[in-house]
Write a structure and sequence with these properties.
5 copies of one chain form a homopentamer. By secondary structure, chain A is α+β, with helices and mostly antiparallel strands. In chain A, 55% of the residues lie in helices and 15% in strands.
Chain lengths: 356, 356, 356, 356, 356
């Protein structure tokens, strides 16, 4: 349960002064990987650097610079970067704390955005979440990820090959593009969950077992955690679109509105999935009690037919001396006949009661 | 499950630059059908065109032009149209993505509206949804549908025969009329669902089976998906009525208020249906447990009467040498009498317990 | 189910131009009945007219005129009236459509109000709803009802006998008085429902049957439909009280606030009733399972006592040649004793388990 | 059920003109008791008067006058008072109607407040509600209660002995003090309910019976009705604190904020209690089904052990001529042994299944 | 149950004038402990004082003074302090009443904040709550706690050793730091609860007992009470951040925003935990009914196999004279064979029904 773990780490910070840099989260990477992409409409440059100081010169350049850092456990790197780019201590603290709620904060000369990048692990059939922090400055974007591997590869392609609008636009558009890529990634998760739900529905109809119940509950829990990542996004993007900051240009706002719509769509689908899953729980429970019913019926039919008959047999198994029936020539046959009649009457009764 | 499928397609877009035109949805039609209706109070012209370029001249004409496109999988047509009518790339993207949430966007010189046209398929007893996009310009309306066949036939009639107000009004009134026709279509769906619910209620009272449960859940799911189409409509129409855009004239707003009322009515009815359906689920479940109760009672009555009697018979079936009762002249009769008395006492007991 | 029926009729309108007059609802009356009451502080005149034209002269008179029309299926009358009194086509459309949601619309020179008048049919034990439309003009009020018979008789009395304030006030006060009478009528419905709930509660405690469940659900459904009539009223009256229209005088607003309070009280009571009814459902379900429990206990006690005893009897009913016990002098007595002891031990066990 | 009764009375008013004085409620007192307390910082005067006219002179006096009327069924008194103190007819109507929802109304020269005074009847273990109306004027407060006996005794003491701030302050502070006393009374109710809930919890753990269920539901119903009294109070006090009326002085507002906090605390506790009670319902239901489970297990164990054994005994009780086992020397012993082995195996099986 | 106890004490105050100082709560300490920390950027002084008067001189000093009082049952101390520091009587009343809802009140020259400090008692596995009141003045902060021991030790360390920003900032920053420490403490609680939930989940899967249910409900109740402490915090911190008071400096607001985010995170986690716990309740209930199902199946299988066989045995145990089968040579063998066949057929039937 990721939530419990996150809190466990979080408490290490309790009581420390705000702005104290403590990495809260799992160390997912040996040493951080830093890549720099610098571009404008004409030029494009991409390189992987080994020391953080190599990217400092880009701060002054008029071109847009995207510094991406994979791995945030090396506090010294974050500190140096923060010092050079003049980031507020609270930004640095938030970057390191991987249990952040998605949010967007406007610090005069920077806009800090933190959100969850989700990916689906096909092997373990679980959703993996990674925290992505974006710092938008006048002509740079710095992105922080917990580990190597992200959903931004297509954006890098578009930058490299000057596809779409991105090379022509400023750093705010790049920020939008990164957020959009993250949100687009949610659709892939929804797709997987949709398939899961579909297959569970078929299973429910065909043959519900207690394993089905466990699957229902695991999907339910995934939806709870997905919801926690997605709901704050609405506010985040809204905040970004409505900020008074000059860092977000008017022309970018229409794109933010678009990604806002996508977010609403994701939320809608999550809520629909929740409705469906809780409907499935109802079906499961009533199919269980239907089954119980069927079992009870069989028991009742067998018992109510044979118990009286056994009683009759018991009566004629008694050893009384004076039991006239026992001496009759057709006594045995008569008793068998009576039994048969009783059984038939009972079967008819059950038939009328629709138990058969 | 339409939702899962939609998401599956949606993920094809993940990572592409915004404004990239990718058709997301099923290809419901071989080649798109384009019809143009051009009118003002005096003139009326209607024709089906084969190439999209034929409708370009209408852009300049002072008359109102309604271009309707059935089938949106041919991206080149959408692109050319977008280019000529100067539509924002995000509009074009949204038109092609059939998983849109109903919404209304104001792009300075256009208002883009997307909503779901629902129809009821009597054969499969399911609701079919089709996405309708409306682009309102100064003197034109462009509508995009996924396939041939819509709820707009009566509007075409009114245009042809100059019935009602529509020929006297501008393009905003036509947009209203189209939205109104879509909302009116919802009432037909509600009617069908209402009938279904009514028949299910009768079934519930008469003879609830596990099939009833499945029907309840299928209606529940239809209501969930209907709700998803209808709720955003409120905001959509409200947005349209309150937009500052000069494209919506003052005189049209009162009509938008009217269709807004209809939408609220649809939402109200959907919510009432939801309440009713979940009430039916309760009835179903308690009727199941009532049944179980009845079964249990029969079992208990039979068992509790005959088990003691069988025991008595068993006792006198024992082979002990010294069992004085066995030699009595009236022993057998006495035992039978005792058994009868026990049975009668038990029946009276059950009677007082109201189990009979 | 009224809702389904309403929708059925409503769909007849789908696609017609707005303002097209189609009567949607049941035809509850043969021919409409029109009554006119004209009054000011000094004068009072009341008459039943046979053609709608007879009421036209009152439009100009400075006195307050109340035109009441029972029966709205005769479209021509509504049309003529609308023409003379200059009513907006959408008002006329709404009057004829009996599936309206309660609302209040401000059309410059008229205020249109539509609400549900409820009455309780003691015979069928159901709530009957009738749509009442009120058009408030400068010096007239026109009210439309579906059939003869209403809750306004006391207002007519007050007008005839100059009781209370009503003859001294303008048409807005009359409108208020009519709305107030409708809302007062809701208290009678609540009273009936309250009695029903009370009697159901007694039944629940005394002897819950599956019929009780059906009654609970019927009350639940009545509350759902009552709620649908009452909730929009809040907004309606609020809208009326806060409208900028000069038709509503300042002095009337305090009375609207009063009827607003009554509406809130009705809503509160409806919500409380809903809470109580759903509480009763819980009680019903748990009383059912309590019963099941009791049945199971009896079965278990009887079975667990006699099954082992019957086994013992069975053992000594076996026909083995060498069964020494069978020859013992006190064998039979000993076996009976053992059986009695076993039975007593079991009874004590059940006693400690509190099953007896 | 108080609610039903209230509505029954309420309907007597249906159709009467607003402001018509009809007493709605139970007549709790033979003849009204009127007491007058007149005070300022120096002077204090307290007397019981027999005719309402005796208190009229106080209207002009600059001192603060508190007129308290116990018993509101004598309409003439209310009318005379209303006439002299110039109270709006709607205030008088509301005072007489004991089914009011707590509210606060600002009539230019008066502020009318109505709320519920609750007391706990230890004998019947129920909450008794009494309506208290407060009319705040420039230098007087008139309070109306349904019967003698209230929570204001300590305020009278403070007035008599000049304790606290109350003698130094104006009539608005007295109004605050009265409201505060009513709200403080709620804490006593909450305490009683808290004790009830605590004792129910112990009962639930120790030995849940169907009586426990009834107690849970009675507390639930008390919480529903408490909630109905408390929720509107928030709005009431807020309205009082934010009114623009000069009757409420700035210095009193901070005290209103304080009583507002108390109200929120009461609401919070009521909601927490509701949560707890519904949690108890869950525990009750699952303890019932746990019990059922236990009963079923015993039945199953007994039955599954003895039914096969009885069958074996039955086989050797058959009277076939050629049953070789019957003649064996150790046949009987062998069968007994086999039976014992079967029984032991079954017991072990149940052990592994954790049924024992 | 803490809530009930709190209310019990609270009612002691009913009817007393506002501002009357009565200690409501448990007396957790023998005699109050008072510590004073006085600091600015250069100086630091910390001492424990024995009489409250010793701290009075600090009021005038320009340095920031933090007076911490552990133990609030000694009313005279609170009164003297209130007198000297000019605190509003309502502040003093609230400090003494330990049942306060977290809130923040702005009294011109002071800001009063009250919140709950939570700690986890590992022995009893319960959450302990202690009320902390903070009074922020121009250059002092007074904090009141119920007992010795708090979460502020690290802040004292930071003050002593001049770590972080706190010595450089004014009293408002100290207030923030104290609130932040309290909120950080919540994460520790969440961590403990998260562990509990995790271990319960494992238990649920492995072997659910009625003790698991009790644990689920105890966690549920802890979440209810945690929620009650946390929800109002949002409003509190928001109020603090948005107050117009000059006591909160602009530079501190960004830190308040940060602690606000933490609060939201706590609330989110509490809500997620609630969702998870109620999901676990569902799992528990369905695992119970699964078990019942399994029990029923075994009973049914055993009973339905052996009851018919026992009947057959009973038939041939009858003592009729003329039962030809009894004399047959292979009669016994044939009957045994028939019985075996019946048993096998039944087993196959159960197999196809998936009951085995």
């Amino acid at each position: 349960m990721a939530t419990a773990k996150q809190n466990k780490k979080r408490s290490r910070k309790a009581g420390l002064p705000p702005g104290t840099l403590v990495h809260i989260g799992e160390k997912k990477l040996e040493s951080p990987r830093i890549t720099v992409i610098d571009y404008d409409e004409q030029n494009f440059q991409e390189k992987e650097i080994s020391t953080i100081e190599e990217c400092f010169p880009f701060k002054q350049s008029p071109t847009v610079t995207w510094i991406n850092i994979d791995g945030i456990h090396d506090i010294s790197i974050i500190e140096k970067l923060g010092g050079h780019f003049d980031l507020h201590p609270l930004i640095l603290e938030d970057i390191l704390n991987t249990g952040q709620r998605p949010k967007c904060e406007d610090y005069d000369n920077h806009i800090y955005t933190v959100l969850k990048m989700l990916s689906y692990d096909d092997k373990s059939e679980t959703i993996r979440a990674e925290q992505v922090s974006l710092v938008l400055g006048a002509n740079f974007v710095i992105s922080f990820q917990e580990s190597v591997g992200d959903v931004f590869e297509q954006i890098r392609d578009r930058l490299r090959n000057d596809k779409g609008r991105v090379r022509k636009m400023a750093s705010d558009y790049l920020t939008y593009a990164l957020i959009d890529a993250v949100v687009d990634g949610y659709f892939i998760i929804l797709e997987k969950l949709g398939e899961k739900i579909e297959s569970m529905e078929e299973q429910l109809v065909a043959e519900p077992t207690s394993k089905t119940l466990q699957r229902i509950h695991s999907v339910k829990r995934e939806l709870i955690s997905l919801r926690k990542s997605v709901w704050p996004l609405r506010e985040l993007i809204n905040g970004l679109a409505k900020t008074g900051s000059s860092l977000i240009k008017e022309s970018t706002r229409v794109y933010l509105r678009d990604v806002y719509d996508h977010t609403i769509q994701v939320i809608d689908t999550v809520e629909t999935f929740r409705d469906m899953v809780s409907g499935m729980l109802d079906i499961y429970l009533s199919s269980i009690s239907n089954r119980m019913n069927a079992v009870m019926k069989v028991l009742t039919i067998i018992a109510t037919i044979f118990i009286p008959l056994t009683f009759v047999a018991g009566v004629y198994g008694m050893n009384f001396k004076y039991m006239p029936e026992l001496g009759w020539r057709w006594g045995y046959a008569a008793v068998l006949l009576v039994m048969a009649v009783v059984a038939v009457i009972m079967l008819i009764y059950f038939k009328t009661k629709k138990w058969l």
